[in-house]
Amino acid sequence: MLVLVGPPTSGKTTVGRAVAAALGVGFRDTDADVEAATGSRVSDLFVDRGEAYFRELEEAAVARALVEHDGVLALGGGAVLSAATRALLVAHGRAGGAVVRLDVDLATAAKRAGFNRDRPLLAVNPRAMLRTMLAERDPLYAEVATATVSTGDRPSPEVVAEVLAVLPASAGAPGEAR
Length: 178
What we know:
Blueprint: E1 2-5, H1 12-23, E2 27-29, H2 30-38, H3 42-49, H4 51-68, E3 72-74, H5 83-94, E4 98-103, H6 106-113, H7 126-144, E5 147-150, H8 156-166
Parallel strand pairs: 1-3, 1-4, 2-3, 4-5
């Protein structure tokens, strides 16, 4: 299984879907899992129940997906804030799975985020929040990653090709030894 981590706007969903298609495996997004389980959008959960509540749901969604899913898994940008999630991701990498960090520079991230209301932590001042997030979370992404691919100002097909190139054989298509 391939797990994609990285900050908001790094391309986890776009790249993840393309990599899954190239490998002929399923794509899963833990934010979508949380939304399906609660019947609420992530942005609404942040507003209505708070970030701590969402993070609990996210931690459970990641743990469940790591057991159930055998394709490409995209995690929310803040999933690595959980020590339990980081431990699971490190163990996944040590067991031969791939955890690819999609890295994006501040200028590209800010341009991609714009004023997107679906990103609750970026709603007020996207550039300042992204700068803070990138600085705080960068060591956490690095801690769990088995490889890093830069997505800033690069076309998707180029990023997808690089992600495919860094995958260990054990993280490839279903049915292969893991």
